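pls ignore typos typing on phone
NAP + seq
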Amino acid sequence: MNKIMNLFSLEGKVAVVTGANTGLGQGISVALAAAGAHVFGVARRSCAETLEKVNEVDGKFTEVIADLSDLSAIDIIMNEVHKSVDRIDILVNNAGVIKREDAINVSEAEWDLVVDLNEKMVFFLSQAVAKQWIEDKKGGKIINIASMLGFQGGIRVPAYTASKSAVMGITKALANEWAQFGINVNAIAPGYMATNNTTQLRNDQDRNEGILERIPAGRWGTPEDMYGAAIFLASEASAYMNGYTVAVDGGWLAR
Ligand code: NAP
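k done
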């Protein structure tokens, strides 16, 4: 590989990807492993399918079982990862949940479930990893998975919209404080992607047609569509990017 293309290599790096058992987290895990990283995939259930896909690209993947609805998961993750490696280089805060309900009916429990995982965990897991990076002065990469609903209001998903708007805010806030330590904090805002997150929408014929009609690319996105942006933001190629949210949306926001 020539010197410039080497900027995209993740050879020898360690990545932690949350929500790695399925969907976009699975795609991101495969991409980072294919680029050379040893990926620790965090999930509350088996990542067997992800392991299989990572094996297909000759990558390295280790599963870490943890329920991210509670901050106690942070110690579990850090302890598990540090059993086999000294250092994390890349953190991808991907795990997220969506609840669809008319705003007028949203309960406090539903609100907390969404915000605790999508927003609070993103901040505190980033903080835990960055503490080590600031101490060892070697920097690192944080990629937060935002959403179109950091830019738009959405319909029947107020807690999700609030949490994803917060993800974009957290991305900028952390970048401002941590760029001086060689830590790049950026985000990817996926558009409408065909995963469990959107099963309900895709099963609703009217919503499905309306969404497809509005996407300039004319199709739902896939986990594979995340490969390029994920490798870029995890690698040296994005060394001078701080606090930015990149849309991978088939042109949705351009419309
Ligand atoms: P997904 O298939 O539902 O994946 C969500 C992931 O988060 C799953 O691995 C899920 O695990 C995990 N998760 C949820 N609650 C958890 C918990 N308490 N502890 C540990 N893991 C937990 O949907 P996805 O589309 O891939 O979503 C990935 C990210 O992309 C999310 O942050 C989502 O908001 C964001 N996003 C998705 C879209 C889209 O159109 N699909 C668009 C914009 C942003 P389980 O399988 O066990 O539930």
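DSSP finds eight helices and seven strands in the chain. The pocket of NAP is lined by residues 19, 21-25, 43-45, 67-69, 94-98, 117, 145, 147, 190, 192-193, 195-198 (CB under 6 Å). more later
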